[in-house]
Specification:
The complex is a heterodimer of chains A (about 575) and B (about 450).
Chain A lengths: L1 H33 L14 H8 L1 H34 E2 L2 H8 L8 H12 L4 H10 L8 H27 L2 H9 L4 H30 L2 H5 L6 H12 L5 H24 L17 E2 L2 H18 L1 H11 L15 H41 L6 H9 L5 H12 L16 H24 L3 H9 L4 H28 L4 H6 L8 H9 L6 H38 L1
Parallel strand pairs in A: 1-2
Helix pairs in contact in A: 1-15, 1-17, 3-4, 3-7, 3-9, 3-13, 5-7, 5-14, 7-9, 7-20, 9-12, 9-18, 11-12, 14-23, 15-16, 15-18, 15-20, 15-22, 15-23, 16-18, 18-20, 19-20, 20-23, 22-23
Chain B lengths: L1 H26 L3 E6 L3 H14 L4 E6 L2 H10 L8 E4 L2 H9 L3 E2 L11 E2 L2 E2 L7 E7 L1 E6 H6 L20 E4 L5 H14 L1 H12 L2 E5 L4 H8 L4 E5 H10 L3 E4 L7 E8 L5 H12 L1 H6 L8 E2 L28 H6 L1 H13 L2 H20 L3 H15 L5 H4 L2 H4 L17 H30 L1
Parallel strand pairs in B: 1-2, 1-3, 9-10, 9-11
Antiparallel strand pairs in B: 3-13, 4-13, 5-6, 7-13, 7-14, 8-11, 8-12
Helix pairs in contact in B: 3-4, 6-7, 13-18, 14-15, 14-18, 15-18
The chains are: A mainly alpha (about 575), B alpha/beta (about 450).
Chain lengths: ~575, ~450
């Protein structure tokens, strides 16, 4: 009993610490910005007038509809891309599995705005594909026109969220379930529909909700494709071009936050009231079987086709980085190494900064996310849901808003030891990245925790383990796969984040890679060097992601051994 | 297991500490912090040359687009860390000057004329200094024009022709200081009503409105669209890099200086002053001729020597037609931005649909004239050109105040909200474009 109550206090302390952290670096800065949405510009009094203006303006209503349409379609396409990939890797003994797991994550580690540049060159109105089509068949396809372009770039960029979460879920399904179903006569599609898919639902829902939210508030891609009639670009354009006192940008931010919470709640409803936990662990997921030769050929064909599509931004970027002049032609006029020569000398600080910032941010993310998930799902603390909502709401805060909020909140006083304001110290970038990526880690940790049966913890506690011991010896090892997925996602995406960083970099020596690429891309003298830096970024972040993945996997394996032996 | 964990945690702490001390040591060096909207191609050349000449000074270039740079300096004013603001658009400097965020400085360098075109090179009040001249015009991709069999445009009016439908690109004035100058120049050169009508007819041919001014040369260079409305050095530097592009100044253009100024309470005022003098010295001015920069120097003697290949802005050949009025531009700065966005940027699809119908009707009526159809076509054109406000209202300080970024004092009374005004404009513009399209389609039907 004593252990039990001490555990309760520990959980409360953890919850409080997380609460204070989120208040300081999320709620207060964003609150300072959002407050503007409720202020009458002319009188300075609180008002709802600005919201009336929003719904009265047809442009904003249109933007709202467009944003929902684009986010929905992107989820659909992302699901279409990731389902076959996830299915092949978890279901069959198949050499392609390793290829999928490696290449499938690569789209995430490229800043979406860079991907958009490359896609424009390949699929744009006068891109390689359309030039070829026009020359040989006399017609073109508007892949990249308006909203199509946003949907295409976004679904290719964000589908790994579904892939990662879905694969993790599929791997966690108890083989006994499938075997029982098969013994009862379920096969093929019926087995998938009635057993496999429902059991994988938490992962799919988590992934789909993330894709929806990310697309809903993504700024870089629509901006780079010059699509204005969507909510996030409208918010950004209002704030950055009209100014800090124009309330509409903030009204849009409030609506983004509110709507994102709504969609999260919907995904929560979709998985509520069902028990996805498996008691047995270590069954190794679904039964894997070997493919017949013709099946194998078919699987490879599907995979290569999909991978060619999802890797097209990288192919385009690679061509751009080696190309000399690429203008209204299928391929660059010539090839050169000069762009790499130009960036090699300057890229090192960008690289070290990126690894440091993204590594620290992802580490903090999994710590905080695991703490939140545990407090929310395994304790009875009053108000614990608030932590979940706060952590998740961060996904709906546009990076620009967070950036402005930090400048407003942390700029006016110098930190004692550092001697400059927190807002211009590099640590603020880590904090911003941590807050921005927390929702990913949180979804992953929550999905993982939902699949751990409470009965296992109860068993441990019945055997006399305190809450801390239970968490450390039972919960965390069982969650390790999900936590690893959370770390990898947070790290990889933090490494390519731009929107908040752009506001917060106060010295070039503190700038991360994405900022460097952005700077290199701002030129009329060709985007070759920017593309070269982009290729370096993809390679470096890819290698670092892979290494961290390996490290986490090894730690997990070691944990499992100690858990079994101890 | 435990040991390994503590060891790696300890290692991480050591690494973190080392990085931390490295960062704070760097902060103590002699520095110069420049907030700039210029691309790396320009800043890196000056950074390298300046650091070579003044060893021991480390130059930090903070790149932000003009509007974001202004915002950054405003937001950080309470604890300023920037020394210089370095950008193209004089209006952006006017905004900072108005907020008291620029410091006065007297240039020591000799040999720079008072004016370029009709524009004073240095701020008459002594705050910001011009270091290069820029004019506005259009660039085009020669491969693109050849493949699509299009003639090269010479004047603004050319860009309104039906052959260019879907081939033109431009940035929005609210997002690019240089684009704002282009828009305002035409409004002042052709007059408010005619100027806006011209912009809308050109915009009807737009392929896209880019997010930043850099998006226009990139789009032309890659062949995404054929013709871009840009500031001159985008054209010159793209061409110097090897892209198949050309640049041309139309008759209605203006030459304006690109500027630099010291920020109030700059932490390194001495270095800031040294940098300005370096920039204006013959040595610094010659750096502007780098193939990736290609800006017009403000030292006339260079045009006889190293700058022979660039157009000389001091002979009166370029932009002599428009006398650019900075005060007028400043008075309605945000209002013009907002009008352009409401009428063009955000209603581009509607505008394009109306323009397409008008082009089709004009073609049909030319083949088979019809008086009533012609009347409808004229009506359609008038509807597209219609403006929500006249020039007098655009210059009315009480009305323009609705669009001001900040109220100076709490007692400043402003009636009306920007969103409210824009909403009314948007309704009117949308209805007009839809009606124009309908009329034009009807007119085309009559010619059949």
């Amino acid at each position: 009993m004593a252990a039990q109550s001490r555990g309760q206090w520990g959980a409360a302390g953890t919850g409080l610490a997380v609460f204070i952290l989120l208040m300081t670096f999320l709620v207060i800065p964003v609150g300072k910005v959002i407050y503007v949405a409720f202020v009458d510009v002319n009188t300075g009094r609180l008002t709802l007038l600005n919201f009336a203006d929003f719904f009265n303006t047809s442009l904003f209503r249109e933007s709202f509809v467009n944003s929902i349409y684009v986010a929905g379609m992107s989820v659909l396409f992302a699901a279409l891309i990731s389902m076959p990939l996830a299915y092949f890797t978890t279901r069959f003994n198949f050499a392609g599995a390793a290829v999928i797991q490696t290449l499938g994550v690569i789209p995430l580690i490229m800043p979406p705005f860079v991907g958009a540049v490359a896609m424009q060159l390949l699929f744009g109105a006068n891109g390689s594909v359309n030039l070829l089509l026009d020359e040989h068949f006399g017609f073109t396809i508007p892949f990249m026109e308006g909203l199509n372009g946003v949907i295409m770039v976004e679904s290719i960029h964000y589908f790994p969220f579904i892939l990662i979460n879905l694969s993790a879920s599929l791997n966690n399904i108890d083989r006994a379930m499938e075997e029982s179903a098969q013994n009862l006569g379920a096969h093929g599609l019926r087995l998938f529909r009635r057993i496999v898919f429902p059991l994988a639902m938490p992962g799919f829902a988590a992934g789909a909700a993330l894709v929806f939210l990310k697309v809903f508030d993504d700024l870089g891609t629509p901006l780079l494709l010059n699509v204005n009639n969507m909510l996030a670009p409208q918010a950004y354009l209002r704030i950055s071009s009209i100014g800090i006192s124009d309330p509409m940008g903030y009204v849009i931010s409030v609506i983004l936050v509110a709507f994102s919470l709504l969609s999260l709640w919907t995904s929560y409803l979709a998985t509520r009231g069902r028990d996805y936990a498996s008691v047995q662990k270590g069954g190794g997921g679904l039964m894997k079987r070997d493919l017949k030769p013709w099946e194998k050929a078919g699987a490879w064909a599907v995979i290569i086709l999909i991978l060619l599509l999802v890797l097209s931004p990288h192919i385009g970027l690679l061509l751009l980085s080696f190309g000399t002049i690429w203008s209204f032609s299928v391929l660059p006029d010539g090839f050169t190494l000069a762009h790499y020569g130009e960036v090699f000398s300057t890229a090192l600080p960008y690289i070290t900064n990126t690894l440091l910032y993204a590594g620290l941010a992802a580490l903090l993310d999994v710590l905080v996310a695991t703490a939140i998930a545990y407090v929310v799902w395994r304790t009875e603390l009053p108000g614990r849901k608030v932590l979940d909502y706060m952590g998740t709401a961060a996904v709906a805060v546009p990076g620009v808003v967070l950036g402005i909020g930090y400048l407003r909140t942390f700029h006016d006083f110098n930190l004692p030891i550092v001697g400059k304001p927190l807002a211009s110290w590099w640590v603020i970038i880590v904090i911003a990245l941590m807050i921005r990526r927390l929702p990913y880690a949180l979804r992953a940790a929550t999905a993982a925790l939902q699949q751990v049966a409470v009965s296992l913890e109860e068993a441990a506690q019945n055997l006399g383990a305190g809450r801390f011991t239970t968490v450390r010896r039972i919960v965390v090892p069982l969650m390790a796969g999900g936590i690893a997925a959370g770390f990898v996602t947070a790290f990889a995406t933090a490494a390519v984040e731009l929107s908040a960083t752009l506001m917060l970099v106060s010295a070039e020596s503190d700038a991360p890679l994405a900022y460097g690429i952005y700077v290199y891309m701002q030129t009329a003298a060709g985007r070759g060097p920017g593309a070269a830096l982009g290729v370096l970024a993809v390679i470096i972040v890819g290698v670092a992601t892979y290494l961290s993945h390996r490290f986490v996997e090894r730690t997990r394996a070691a944990h499992e051994v100690t858990a079994r032996d101890g | 297991m435990k040991h390994a964990f503590f060891k790696s945690a300890g290692l991480a702490a050591v690494v973190a500490l080392a990085l931390l001390s490295g960062v704070s040591a760097r902060a103590m060096e002699n520095k110069l912090v420049v907030v700039t909207s210029f691309p790396k191609d320009l800043t890196s050349v000056f950074k390298k040359a300046f650091e070579a000449k003044y060893p021991g000074v480390k130059v930090e270039m903070l790149k932000k687009k003009t509007t974001a740079g202004v915002k950054y300096i405003q937001e950080t004013a309470s604890n300023n860390t920037s020394d210089l603001f370095w950008a193209s658009a004089p209006d952006a400097f006017e905004v900072l000057k108005g907020d008291g965020l620029l410091a006065k400085y007297q240039v020591k360098a000799k040999g720079i004329p008072e004016k370029v075109g009709a524009f004073p090179i240095n701020d008459p009040d002594g705050y910001y200094k011009g270091f290069a001249a820029s004019g506005y015009g259009f660039m085009w991709n020669t491969r693109y024009l050849k493949a699509k069999k299009l003639p090269a445009p010479r004047e603004w009016e050319d860009l309104t022709k039906p052959v260019y439908f879907g081939h033109v690109g431009m940035s929005a004035p609210s997002r690019s200081g240089t684009t704002h100058l282009t828009v305002e120049t035409v409004l002042q050169g052709d007059g408010w009503e005619k100027g806006w009508a011209l912009w809308k007819r050109i915009a009807g041919n737009f392929k896209t409105v880019t997010e930043r001014s850099f998006g226009v040369p990139s789009g032309v260079n890659s062949g995404e669209f054929g013709i871009g409305i840009v500031i001159d050095f985008f054209g010159f530097s793209s061409k110097a890099t090897g892209y198949p592009v050309e640049f041309h100044y139309p008759t209605v253009t203006t030459l304006v200086p690109a500027n630099i100024a010291i920020v109030t309470k700059a932490p390194h005022p001495k270095n800031a002053a040294t940098f300005i003098e370096f920039l204006l010295s013959p040595e610094g001015q010659k750096l502007l001729l780098d193939p990736k920069i290609q800006r017009l120097p403000v030292r006339p003697e260079l045009y006889k020597g190293p700058a022979k290949n660039l157009p000389n802005p001091f002979t009166g050949g370029i932009g002599a037609k428009v006398k650019f009025d900075v005060k007028k531009s400043k008075a309605r700065y945000n209002l013009v931005n907002s009008m352009f966005d409401v009428m063009i940027t955000y209603r581009l699809d509607d505008l394009r649909a109306a323009t397409k119908a008008i082009h089709a009707a004009a073609r049909a009526l030319a083949a088979k004239p019809n008086a009533e159809g012609q009347k409808m076509l004229d009506q359609a054109r008038a509807l597209v050109a219609a403006l929500p406000i006249d020039e007098a209202k655009s210059l009315d300080p009480a009305f323009a105040a609705i669009f001001k970024k900040k109220r100076k004092k709490a007692t400043d009374k402003v009636t009306g909200r920007q969103a409210e005004v824009e909403q009314k404009w948007d309704e009117m513009v949308k209805a007009n474009y839809a009606k124009a399209r309908m009329l034009a389609e009807k007119a085309a039907g009559m010619a059949r």
